[in-house]
Every structure is written in C-alpha cells, then in structure tokens.
Give the backbone structure.
Amino acid sequence: MEENIFDSILKRIRPFEIERRKVLAILIFREIIVFTVLFFLIKCFILCKYDSDAAVWFLVMIFGVLYYSFYDITHTNKLFKKDIKLKVIYILQDFFNIRGIRKSSVSKSQLMHSNLFPYFEEVNVDDGYSGCHNSVDYSILEAKLTAKSPKRFDITTFKGLIVLYEFNKNILKDTIVTRKNDDNIRQNLHGLNVKRIFVPLSIMMSLIVIFAFLASGGIKSFDELFFAISLIIVPLACGFIIFGLPFLVLHFIQQRKQKMTKTEMEDIVFNKDYIIHTKDPVEARYLITTAFMERFLKLQKIFKTKNIKCSFFDKDKLMIAIPARKDLFEVCSLFSSLKNKKYIEKFYNDIEDIKKIIDVFKLNERTGL
C-alpha cells in the first residue's frame, strides 16, 4: 500500500487527537492524586514499622492503591482504544475493503464442526471483520470460548483469533492440524485435561503424606508404608472413577465417531511440533503441501505464538485458530499520538496476512486437489 493512503487515513482520524489528549490529561490528574496518597501511605508505613498491626494495614493499603493505579491505566486505555475503533472503523472499511461486524459471523455449529476447540458453551466476540479476496469470503473474529465448571464458574477454553475461509475447493474428508499437547476435540477430554488435574493433585497429596509421616517420626514398618501409599492411591483412584472415567468414555465415543487417524508429513521439523488428524491420509497430503507448511510456520512469527491450529471441514471451509492473550487489530493507543501511523500500518499488515493465506493456499482455485 502506498504511503499516501496511510497519510489519508491519518488525516481523517486526526480530529480524535484532541479527545485522546483530554482523556490522557484526566488520567494523569487521577494518577497524581493516587501517587500523592501512595506517598502518604508509605510515610505512614515507615513511621509505624515498629507497630506490626498498623504496618500490615498500611502495607495492604499500599498494594491496594498500586492495584487501583494499574487497573485505572489499563482499563482507561482499553476503553479509549475501543471507543476510537468504533468511530474510525468506517474509515478503515473504505481503505482496506473490509466490513466491521458486531456479532459473530461464524456460527457455533461451525466452531464445533471444526474440531479445533475443546468443549465450550458460549462464544463471546470482542471484535470482528469480514471481507472477500480473490472471490474467497473470509471472516475474522477476536473471540473467547467459555464453558461452565461443575460449580458454574466460567472457564475459558480458547481466547484469540479465529479466521474462517469459504473457498472453492471440494474437500471430501475433514483434516485438522494442531500442535502437540494442544487442547482440541481430538486431544482434550471434553474440556477436562486429566493430566492438569490429577498430576498436581497426586504430587500435593504425596507431599502431605510424606510431611505427616516425617513429622510423626517417619515410617517404621511395612504396614505403615502400605498405609501411606494407600492414602495416596485410594483417593486418586476414587476421583478418577468418579470424574475421569466418564470423560474417558465420552472421549472414546467422540474418537470413534470422528474416525480420524494421525498422519505424518515428510517435513521433520513440522512433524516435531504438529500433529495431523484426518479421515483421509491421501487427501491430507494434497492439502498439507510444502507451501502450506512454510506459510503455517511463518504465521507463528507473524502472530508471535506457536500454538496455531487449523481445520479443513464441511467440504469447503478452512478455519485457523490463533491463541492470543492480548487485543489484536489495534488502531491506536492512549499513550501514542494519532499522528503516528504505526498502529494503522500494523492493522493493515494483519489484514493482509489473513488475505495472503488465500493466495498461498490457492483457495480461490476451483480445480480439484
């Protein structure tokens, strides 16, 4: 893209620079008050350091003020970025040939059919865009997938970028590419990863039993050793039967239903980090070409994550999931002038990287594999 186009965008969003400075000034004023209070609390803490009760309370208040300051800065910045993005999205649409979407343009059933994600119940879309490139429609979502724990707490099973392409090829069998030990419908027990629960639990119980016996004088006979081992094994076995076994059965049923097999490629580096599950190994080798693997690995560097995964499914769809803990597609920052075009360039490059996948994977071609 030519430099003058970026300049044109900056010219149209420059009026919001006044708003940015105003919000920043108010934030700085609040922080001055906060740090004045913090200075007072620190002085009180120093004066009361010989009074342990008072010192503890002042220390608690100091950490409380620091937490408030951190929350105030990050939350204000987040709200500002969201507000500006809503105001300038129509400008970006004109220049970048995209459409902003408020609700998910990817259905829950499509997310489930992709087999890329562990069990989830709700889809929360933070941001999204859609468009068409070389006759291929695509949708981009910043989304969080959540499920309910047995105690009805929200559990995040995935957070990041989801991209769906509807291309012109005719895929006969489903194929997914995931990183080893990734959480997905093939490798995760319906949202419950047994290793993450039972391994820490067993270690904790073992340490408790060892500490108890050491405190009581140690193990003095074989019967005491057997009793100590039973204290660890019996609760773990009961927990596995009650909680783990049902999920194992469900996982086995799901595996049988999917009828997918593992397939390795000729690229040793790719096989080292990734697993390919497919219903048709021959077709998978046509899909996962050398160009595909090169571009797929390059996406790791572009989005600075190694846990990218993708799925070919429903005959004509490719879904790519990119885990990310921070906001993507940012167009500004409260702490950077809107005259600075680095955010706009980054936004454009992120969109272009999504579009390039269409060209590299030749999704626009109508020919067979």
